[in-house]
Specification:
The chain is built from 20 helices and 10 strands. The strands form 2 sheets. Strands 6-7-8-3-9-10 form a 6-stranded mixed sheet, with helices on both faces. Strands 2-1-4-5 form a 4-stranded antiparallel sheet. Helices cover 64% and strands 9% of the residues. It folds into 3 domains: 256 residues, ABC transporter transmembrane region fold (Up-down Bundle); 176 residues, 3-Layer(aba) Sandwich (Rossmann fold); 73 residues, P-loop containing nucleotide triphosphate hydrolases (Rossmann fold, 3-Layer(aba) Sandwich), CATH 3.40.50.300. Helix 1 packs across helix 5, helix 6 runs parallel beside helix 9 and helix 8 packs antiparallel against helix 9. By secondary structure, the protein is α/β, with parallel strands linked by helices. The structure holds adenosine-5'-triphosphate. Adenosine-5'-triphosphate binds next to helix 12. The site of adenosine-5'-triphosphate has 11 residues, from helix 12.
């Protein structure tokens, strides 16, 4: 697991490899300039001792200092630039994947947590995939270089230093998995905080109206505290790792001073060599600290990369095959379309067949649909009614292929739904969800969401159809008016009409309306019913309605109960039959005097 996370981390760094190598090389060059300074200093002392001029050494030292600083600065910029690009790359990957994930997978993940993966986790990647990686690399190379030079200066002292480095290195290695675990917990707690915030802000009016502000902020406080605690755990282990890097140098200093002093005293080592050795030890502080912070930073990065890859590894919905590419599904679909060309060819709307459909949201839950079957021929208005929670909206979700069924079959225009590419299928459908979501942005953004190429005339016509012209004309900025978060600046009825207009602009062959007019006043509703009846002449329209009065004119009404279609027919037929529909109608005081089907 740790290995695969490290591999993924390297995968994020790979596209920036050239920039990183250039940056690291420049930084290393700056490091080499520092590395050469003790040698020049040694030669400076030796030259002074024999009373010769030292101007060459002074010039060299000045060059090493200025040149080293400049190359380090360029190196740092190159690495920082690569760091920003790594974050951008990871965010792009997540952003392009998220909207394509399956609805079933998205159902299980709170949006706030997903947001935190795109924002906070990718930010952690920034340091890990670049600076920490470079620090680890440079720290190791410099440390190795210094150890080689120390071995060259004095083998005995080198072995003593090596012993100290290895002992403390082994202790640090034990700490690293703890840092990774604590970091992942901190990021998870941050994700929880994001979800909590999303829950609070998404329903702020309900929270205020329920007087639950304190309760909600206490819950958020708990998540924030959890993130703090996990962050502290990571910091604690990080501090231990960081201190051990200082400890290694201090211990090595003491060892070299004691051992080196004795060796100088008995004449087996020169003072100049001891000074050089001690200077190397002095310079050891940098690379050892760099290595420690690099490695512990990498642990934080691997924790973040795991959370990012948990999303990237979810399989997306199948992408649309380019025209003529002839993949398996495409070929099957083409064959099916050929087998039944009439329904697709006639511009009457889509034909739908459900055969013994079984569907459950989760493997361990009971089926929502259990043997549901019905046929809808192209065109006309069909209504779906039934008690709350019987699976009416689920029928629509299945038609949109948000979920795949567990048994039976669904065909649209004679093609099995599994042979339809989701994008291609949805292009044929206009769907108005139960709570008519409106997105933040302008009215125009919302209307053209599903039909970016809609002409101004078409927009105008649809706005008239849904009786929105007066509203748009009354707004100073017309269609370019901002509607606020989730359309908060609009009334419930306006939101519904915008959602219907959006679906109509898609010019669908199948229109799905889920309680789409429930918030309209009686006049607007009856006007819209006429519009829908008109559309049903050329389009298959399916409506879900609780108020039966809104669907009495439907060509056919399907009565859904306990996951099955219990009855089907016109309003009058169903009333005559008795049963659930007649009981529902009785509770809504509907008699047989309702208008007969207006559409066909
Ligand atoms: N995303 C989901 N995950 C798990 N269960 C779900 C999900 N959506 C709906 N359900 C469950 O499936 C059942 C059918 O829900 P559905 O929304 O289809 O009913 P409905 O007939 O449209 O209800 P209503 O008339 O109240 O809108 C319900 O028991 C509901 O709890």
């Amino acid at each position: 697991m740790q290995d695969s996370a490290t591999r993924s981390l390297l995968g994020h760094a790979r596209p920036q490899a050239k920039a990183l190598i250039a940056g690291a090389a420049l930084s290393a060059l700056g490091g080499v300039a520092g590395l050469a300074q003790p040698l020049v200093a040694k030669s400076f002392v030796e030259t002074l001792a024999v009373d010769e001029p030292v101007s060459r050494q002074v010039l060299l030292l000045a060059l090493l200092i200025v040149g080293g600083a400049l190359t380090s600065a360029f190196g740092m910029y190159a690495v920082e630039r690569a760091a920003e690009s790594v974050v951008l790359g990871a965010r792009r990957q997540l952003i392009s994947r998220l909207p394509r994930l399956r609805v079933a997978d998205l159902d299980q993940r709170p949006p706030g947590d997903l947001i935190s993966r795109v924002t906070a986790d990718t930010t952690l990647l920034r340091e890990a995939a670049t600076n920490n990686l470079v620090d680890t690399l440079i720290g190791s190379v410099t440390l190795l270089g210094m150890l080689v030079l120390m071995a060259w200066l004095d083998v005995v002292l080198f072995l003593a230093v090596l012993g100290v480095v290895l002992a403390i290195g082994a202790c640090t290695a034990l700490l690293m998995p703890r840092i990774a675990r604590a970091s992942k917990e901190a990021q998870e707690a941050l994700g929880e905080l994001g979800s909590g915030l999303e829950r609070l802000l998404g329903a702020i009016r309900t929270v205020k109206a329920s007087g639950a502000e304190q309760r909600e902020s206490t819950a958020l406080e708990r998540s924030a505290h959890g993130a703090w605690q996990a962050g502290l755990r990571a910091a604690r282990w990080g501090a231990v790792a960081g201190t051990s890097s200082g400890l290694v140098v201090q211990l090595a200093f003491l060892t070299v001073l004691g051992l080196g002093g004795a060796r100088v005293a008995n004449g087996s080592m020169s003072v100049a060599s001891l000074i050089g050795f001690l200077l190397y030890l002095f310079y050891l502080v940098g690379p050892v600290a760099q290595l420690a912070s690099g490695i512990s930073g990498l642990q934080v990065g691997t924790a973040a990369v795991r959370r990012i890859h948990e999303v990237l590894e979810l399989s997306p919905e199948e992408a649309e095959e380019p025209a003529g590419s002839g993949g398996t599904a495409g070929r099957r679909a083409a064959a099916a379309a050929e087998a039944e060309p009439s329904s697709a060819a006639a511009d009457q709307g889509a034909g739908i067949v459900f055969r013994d459909v079984v569907f459950r949201y989760r493997e361990d839950s009971r089926p929502v649909l259990d043997g549901a079957g019905f046929e809808i021929s192209p065109g006309g208005l069909t209504a779906v009614v039934g008690p709350s929670g019987t699976g009416k909206s689920t029928l629509f979700a299945l038609l949109e292929r948000f979920y795949d069924i567990d048994g039976g079959s669904i065909t649209v225009d004679g093609r099995d739904l599994r042979d339809w590419n989701p994008t291609e299928l949805r292009r044929n459908i206009g769907y108005v969800e139960q709570d008519a979501p409106v997105l933040a942005g302008t009215l125009r953004d919302n209307l053209t969401l599903a039909a970016s190429g809609a002409s101004p005339d078409e927009l105008r016509r649809v706005l008239e159809q849904v009786r929105l012209t007066a509203l748009v004309d009354s707004l100073p900025q017309g269609l370019d008016t901002e509607v606020g978060h989730r359309g908060a600046a609009l009334s419930g009825g306006q939101r519904q009409r915008i959602a219907i207009a959006r679906a109509l602009l898609r010019r669908p062959r199948l229109l799905l309306l889920d309680e789409a007019t429930s918030q309209l006043d009686a006049l607007n509703e009856s006007e819209l019913r006429e519009v829908v009846a008109e559309i049903a002449r050329t389009t298959t329209v399916l409506v879900i309605a609780h108020r039966l009065s809104t669907v009495t004119g439907a060509r056919r009404i399907l009565v859904l109960e306990d996951g099955r279609v219990r009855a089907a027919g016109t309003h009058a037929e169903l009333l005559r039959e008795g049963g659930l529909y007649a009981r529902l109608a009785a509770t809504q005081t509907l008699g047989p005097t309702q208008p007969e089907p207006a559409t066909d």
